Amino acid sequence: MSFLLSGPIRFFDEDQLTDLVEEFSHRVRRDPLLRPALDQLVGNRWADAEASFLTVLRSSLLSECGIPTDGNLLAKAARLLRPADVERLATILMNCAMEIFPIESAADFIEVGDELAGALMALVNSEGQARQRQVLRVRDQLSSGALLAGL
What we know:
Layout: H1 14-30, H2 35-42, H3 46-62, H4 71-80, H5 83-100, H6 103-124, H7 128-144
């Protein structure tokens, strides 16, 4: 018997996804290199940041759309983060994914991390009107659940 799958098959459950976000947040908050920029970006609203990141992950991995994305927060991140910060965030996410998930599932999260890092890196490395256009592009990409459109 043959059948058509309407979407990608993902091997993780909601608890694991929450565990990933919590572990990532915990490690980022303890990181002395990232903490200064993230204190300015997130402040004391870590629970909100974790909920937003969980939404971005779900949206990207499950192709959900209609997720509100704050363009002002993206613009602020572009001003506060350095390329080394973006690379460090991607590395921390990769390490968390490798510890929480089996390799097959971890690869999906690493791919999301790479795409997010690429989008953030483009923001960080742009200036002026190019940055404004990039903010709008990333906002729309995240809002539509199209971060991993190639999958």
